Q: What sequence folds into this?
């Protein structure tokens, strides 16, 4: 027998944003069901680099990132679990004059959004990071950025949502959803849910669900290649990136150096990513140039994930243009971890008030209206 | 131009133990030139491991009854010469689609294979008990390797603990090497060994050897104590004593300066996992193993499995399975194979399976040790994770599955990536939840199979 569930809001996907939305919606007294194909917080939300970074974001994302950043300070307290959030600061290194000019231009622009960045000259950077193996010309420091443990955040949100009374259903893939006029009927494995509102937070799978409502969007999977060393004596005090983005590295409290570079292999059918040896070795080579002391280290694990990427590298956030009551939040394009907490709030605001104080216009799904829709009919019937 | 259609398929065998060696022999006999990869410097695998060049000792001393088999296998590659592309000192650290990634003598390399035989063997199964991380506690395998590779014992006065046929063997080897034995403790009961004695007669020679080792150590004044209920190592900087309770709950204490302890074997199946082979949980040996049909095929058409790497069978089975699997591969390539040889191997393997079933029944999984282990004992020494931490996390933070337990506690995130601690953690999790290890799943596999040095990329 298929179980039936009737709620105010059904959420497809159980990533950080989805579970944060469930928490916020319970705060408004609404009934909520989270329908997750696998386990909550085990998709991109659970396997990412853990960068809680504002610096370098698309300026259109900055207001959201700024608001999210205020939430990170209280996150461990809210969730009742240590998410290992540390304000280590984020340093972005410039290796050419052009890089330097880019950083300075970004600094000025970011100021408009209240993000204060400090330019460091070559001497200052090398004094700050004496272990750097490559000569850099300068850097931009974002003192309020940091890092956290992604494995903990999503599941902790899910558990809090459950404690607050949300229905959290794992191993419950959604196979179809229709608007009924009064709301939605959602078919999941072993479960039919009726809901007044539907939130599409299905990550890389968000495009499929949107297509079912006649909104075709070009989401492609994104699988950054990640590596981790055995624990090392603590020395990488900041989270580090470089202009161009081909190296990024941080060190955990435990001492493991985590770094990334390149993109892995994907099984699009199953929806997962894996690292490739070539990318891992390239990443090791590049990172070693920047951090020569890694020569003493061993890589003990490499991994990847599966995020949704939009052609313009910013997500889709906001109400559906075809179906009242449907709200999208997917396609975070490799940088949605930091945004997770605020996306939860924004989604709850959109459900309860129909609007949000955060400027989400740039993320409207309608920006893809004129894209070709060749595969829409096919995709609508694909079960995922 | 190269005639691509006619080129010989690239066949790779990983593991130069009994299984892998017999496999390359069979492939070479059919005119193929297989590539044989092993991280060890010399062929032989686990049981027939060779001492380093320059430290050789007589085979009879090293391998006892098995010396002729060991010598035959060691000479096999010399005999085959250039017909096998042997790559010793080479770790296969990743496998994706049809590519194997290798690390040898400080450089990274890749091979694209058409078919691969994974003959990666097994390692000791480690279970925690009070004081097991005290310096001077080793696995039985390490105790054996110390003897075989270095010709030294792990201590002056040694207590040996086990849950399988390795225990009487190692005890016998230690006695022969002149070591002083403090105690020989079997944590599984005696009754099932008597009950399944008849089944063990499927391999009379093996049974006799086991009885001989047991008789030898008994006559030397160290009868095996069966049904040991709990263990505790005493000592700080070094093992000082082993305290154990017998089947009736009485406590005993023996002074010793080293302990060799392990509890059966577990398959080294990471490459099969990376290859995407389907795994199932084996309820008898309580481990996840890659599925393998009786002819050596995995669930993936171009990946074959032989020897202990897919299910524990012992060295003789590994030899048979290596040959059998190579014949399967040849048949799958459309090459002629000797049907009567295949039938003979299948009969022998079937007989071995009946023996194995009796052996597993004679040595049931010693789960009681995990109930007895105190909360403050380590499970994972790389990450310093205690048994109590796992038990608490399972209950308080709803970690009902291994990957979740890992996310919350870091179990399986250290150097060994769960190779050593993973099975113990799964058992502890299942026991805490009053569930089964099959239900708590297994740690997701990712490369590298073993740690790879960053500096070698330069
Ligand atoms: C390797 C890697 C490194 C990254 N590093 C960073 C970083 O340092 N900083 C940063 O800010 N961001 C980073 N990101 C990006 C960030 O992780 C993601 O943008 C963010 O987690 C996306 O969240 P999400 O909820 O949209 O997706 P997910 O966390 O993937 O959640 C979507 C969920 O939907 C489920 N789902 C899909 N289809 C269905 C269906 N039909 N029915 C039910 N459930 C379904 C999936 O199983 C999944 O759990 C990284 C991403 C990756 C992969
Ligand atoms: C500690 C111990 C003691 C044992 N004692 C006995 C005994 O007394 N009697 C008995 O019958 N059986 C014993 N066994 C079992 C016996 O060793 C095995 O049954 C037999 O060796 C299995 O042969 P195999 O070819 O399957 O694997 P193995 O002999 O284990 O050979 C596997 C080989 O693969 C190599 N390898 C694995 N992974 C990789 C990789 N990723 N890259 C490169 N190389 C790799 C290893 O270096 C190894 O040489 C013991 C096993 C262990 C672990």
A:
């Amino acid at each position: 027998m298929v179980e039936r569930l009737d709620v105010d809001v059904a959420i497809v996907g159980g990533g950080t944003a989805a579970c944060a939305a469930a928490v916020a919606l319970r705060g408004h007294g609404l009934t909520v069901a989270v329908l997750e194909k696998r386990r909550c917080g085990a998709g991109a939300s659970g396997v990412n680099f853990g960068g809680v970074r504002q610096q370098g974001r698309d300026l259109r994302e900055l207001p959201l990132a700024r608001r999210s950043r205020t939430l990170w300070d209280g996150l461990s307290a809210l969730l009742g679990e240590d998410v290992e959030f540390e304000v280590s600061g984020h340093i972005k290194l410039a290796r050419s004059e052009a890089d330097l000019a880019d950083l300075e231009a970004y600094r000025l622009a970011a100021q408009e959004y209240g993000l204060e960045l400090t330019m460091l000259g070559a001497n200052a950077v090398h004094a700050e990071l004496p272990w750097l193996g490559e000569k850099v010309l300068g850097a931009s420091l974002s003192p309020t950025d940091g890092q956290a443990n992604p494995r903990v955040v999503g599941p902790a949100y899910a558990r809090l949502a459950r404690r607050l009374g949300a229905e959290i259903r794992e191993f419950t893939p959604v196979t179809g959803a229709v608007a009924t006029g009064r709301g939605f009927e959602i078919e999941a494995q072993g479960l039919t849910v009726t809901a007044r509102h539907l939130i599409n937070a299905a990550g890389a799978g968000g495009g499929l669900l949107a297509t079912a409502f006649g909104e075709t969007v070009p989401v492609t999977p994104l699988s950054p290649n990640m590596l981790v060393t055995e624990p090392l004596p603590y020395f990488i005090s900041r989270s580090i990136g470089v202009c161009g983005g081909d190296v990024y590295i941080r060190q955990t409290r435990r001492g493991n150096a985590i770094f990334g570079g390149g993109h892995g292999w994907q099984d699009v059918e199953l929806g997962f990513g894996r690292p490739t040896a070539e990318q891992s070795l390239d990443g090791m080579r590049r990172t070693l140039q920047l951090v020569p002391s890694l020569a003493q280290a061993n890589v003990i694990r490499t991994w990847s994930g599966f995020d949704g990427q939009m052609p313009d590298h910013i997500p889709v956030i906001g109400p559906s243009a075809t179906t009242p009551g449907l709200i999208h939040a997917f396609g975070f394009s490799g940088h949605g971890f930091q945004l997770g907490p605020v996306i939860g709030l924004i989604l709850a605001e959109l459900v309860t008030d129909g609007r949000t104080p955060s400027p989400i216009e740039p993320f409207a799904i309608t920006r893809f209206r004129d894209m070709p829709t060749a595969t829409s009919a096919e995709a609508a019937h694909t079960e995922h | 131009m190269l005639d691509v259609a006619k080129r010989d398929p690239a066949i790779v065998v990983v593991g130069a133990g009994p299984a892998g060696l017999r496999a390359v022999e069979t492939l070479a006999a059919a005119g193929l030139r297989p590539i044989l990869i092993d991280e060890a410097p010399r062929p032989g695998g686990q049981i027939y491991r060779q001492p380093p060049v320059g430290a050789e000792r007589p085979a009879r001393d090293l391998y006892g009854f098995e010396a002729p088999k060991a010598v035959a296998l060691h000479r096999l590659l010399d005999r085959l010469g250039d017909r096998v592309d042997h790559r010793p000192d080479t770790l296969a650290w990743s496998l994706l689609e049809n590519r194997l990634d290798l690390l040898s003598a400080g450089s990274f390399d890749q091979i694209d294979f058409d078919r691969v035989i994974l003959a990666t063997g097994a390692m000791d199964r480690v279970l925690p008990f009070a004081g097991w991380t005290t310096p001077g506690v080793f696995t039985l395998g390490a105790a054996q390797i110390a003897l075989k590779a270095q010709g030294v014992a792990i201590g002056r006065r040694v207590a040996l603990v086990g849950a399988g046929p390795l225990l009487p063997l190692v005890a016998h080897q230690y006695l022969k090497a002149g070591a002083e034995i403090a105690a020989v403790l079997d944590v599984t009961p005696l009754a099932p060994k008597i009950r399944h004695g008849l089944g063990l007669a499927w391999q009379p020679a093996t049974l006799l050897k086991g009885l001989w080792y047991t008789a030898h150590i008994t006559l030397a004044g160290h009868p095996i104590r069966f049904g040991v209920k709990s263990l505790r190592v005493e000592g700080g900087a070094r093992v000082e004593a082993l305290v154990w309770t017998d089947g009736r709950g009485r406590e005993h204490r023996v002074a010793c300066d080293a302990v060799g302890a392990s509890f059966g074997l577990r398959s080294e199946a990471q490459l099969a996992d990376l290859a995407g082979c389907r795994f199932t949980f084996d309820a008898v040996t309580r481990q996840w193993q890659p599925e393998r049909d009786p002819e050596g095929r995995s669930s993936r058409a171009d990946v074959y499995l032989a020897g202990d790497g897919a299910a524990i069978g012992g060295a003789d089975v590994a030899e048979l399975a290596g040959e059998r699997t190579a014949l399967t591969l040849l048949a799958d390539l459309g090459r002629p194979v000797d049907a009567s040889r295949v039938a003979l191997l299948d009969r022998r393997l079937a007989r071995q399976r009946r023996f194995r079933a009796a052996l597993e029944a004679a040595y049931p999984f010693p789960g009681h040790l995990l109930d007895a282990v105190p909360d403050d004992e380590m499970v994972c020494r790389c990450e310093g994770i205690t048994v109590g931490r796992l038990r608490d996390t399972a209950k308080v933070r709803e970690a009902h599955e291994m990957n979740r337990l890992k996310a919350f506690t870091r179990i399986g995130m250290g150097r060994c990536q769960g190779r050593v601690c993973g099975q113990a953690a799964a058992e502890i999790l299942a026991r805490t939840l009053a569930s089964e290890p099959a239900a708590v799943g297994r740690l997701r596999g990712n490369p590298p199979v073993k740690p790879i040095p960053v500096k070698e990329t330069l």
Notes: The mean pLDDT of chain B is 92.
